[in-house]
Amino acid sequence: MLAESELAATAPEYLQSRTSSSATSTASSLERRSFETLIRQAANVVFATSNSGELARMLEDGRRFDWSIIEEAGKAHGFDLALALQASHRLLLIGDQSQLPPYNFERFETLFREPPRILNALKMGAQFAPGLIDRAFMNLDANGQIKFSDSCSEWLPMVQFFAELFLRATKSTVAGVSIAQQLKFQHRMHPEIAKLVSECFYKGRLKTHPDAIKRFSEEPPPYSIVAGSWLPAAPVVFIDMPWVQQEKFAGGEEGGDGAPRYSNPTEIEAVGRVLSTIRSVDGVSCHVQVISPYRAQVRRIASAIGDRMRLGADLENLLAPEFDMDVGKRKGATVDEFQGSEADIIIASLVRNNDEKPGKGLGFLADPRRVNVLVSRARHKLVLIGSWNFMESRIDCSVEPNGEEELAHIARLIRFLKHGRQTGSVAVVPYSLTKGSLF
């Protein structure tokens, strides 16, 4: 609590007294709000979500900042950033337009391309919440509708605001220096994982800082692998599942039929086999995270892991406090949920394994931004579980793909894994060589 903090202890006596009285249960709501406002107005640094009501009130009261620093700006619609953009005349936006875009951006873009639909929605909304609808949009004449359509065209780039701004900013300079810059060095990922991400999604421009290279080469990982286990020590491992088009009884994906409720039971089994080989290091915290593009797969994996942990048998190793598997969604999170987070070990179930014709059947994996997030979350070890032959059959991987070619990221990923297999930085393990049955 603020009243018990070191900051309060160094404050003048009258402020200490007011801080203590405001923290008591007898303080009136008006006193507490008044004191909170005082604290906010006096703060040198304020942390807030981009659309916070408190931030809006501060701006209404005339508060402005020297800088607005917006993290994960690529995930926000321009409309969500309006308050933060107004809070200062100096802005630092940090984001990655090569990763997942703002939520539901396709729907917003579709709407802005069809202004009549928006006007119809406003008319319908006015029947249920008239106080939220500007009446000026209710009965536009022909000229007003044209102006509204022009406005929609101007609003369209605001949906993916960061990507649009970054593109424009790369063409703008101050004192000969571009005002948009890409970070050149990364510090958190194993160099080989970083190289995969760089080659597949950033044209090789992302490098590992020398300090990070030294750290990963000298410090042991925060986990161990069972001696003699089938799981290799390589930082990148691909568990190769049989392709349903080549093996009669291979276990492929299930689900579909409209909503993307895909799952893959055989890959759930593979996740368990990977987890069974990992051991904790006494006193060293280790974040193990299972992810997948599909929520249905995530739910089934989390349920299977939880069941086995409760039985205290096949996955009793995960009960170690160093793993702390009950925190958050460590037993399973979608790729979208896990953007912006990281873990020491990432186990990724790709799910898709079908007999669709080349170029088809990848679902969420056809989006390079989602695959970028999927492979860039691991600090020490990345384990991909999927069908190598299925992935390789989607696009010609024998030649370097054109940068604009659809599914070019899949070809680059397969090519990188093939090369890494030759150098030893990547290990490919056929599913048939994994041992044990957990689920």
Written description of the protein model:
The chain has 439 residues and is α/β, with parallel strands linked by helices. It has 3 domains: 2-93, no CATH class; 105-159, no CATH class; 185-433, 3-Layer(aba) Sandwich (Rossmann fold), CATH 3.40.50.300. It has 17 helices and 14 strands. The strands form 5 sheets. Strands 11-10-12-13-8-14 form a 6-stranded parallel sheet. β12 (343-349), α15 and β13 (378-386) form a beta-alpha-beta unit. α10 packs antiparallel against α17 and α12 crosses α13 (295-311). The radius of gyration is 26 Å and the shape is globular. The model has no long low-confidence stretch (mean pLDDT 89).
What is the element layout, followed by pairings?
Layout lengths: L5 H4 L3 H11 L5 H14 L10 H8 L7 E3 L11 H5 L4 E3 L11 H8 L2 H14 L13 H14 L5 H9 L3 E2 L2 E2 L6 E2 L4 H11 L5 E2 L1 H9 L4 E3 L10 E5 L24 H12 L1 E3 L7 E5 L2 H17 L21 E2 H4 L4 E7 L18 H8 L2 E9 L1 H5 L15 H16 L2 E5 L9
Helix pairs in contact: 10-17, 12-13
Which tags fit this structure?
globular, 12% strand, 17 helices, alpha/beta, 38% helix, 3 domains, 439 residues, two-stranded parallel ribbon, six-stranded parallel β-sheet, Rossmann fold
Give a quick precis of the structure.
With 439 residues, this protein is α/β, with parallel strands linked by helices.
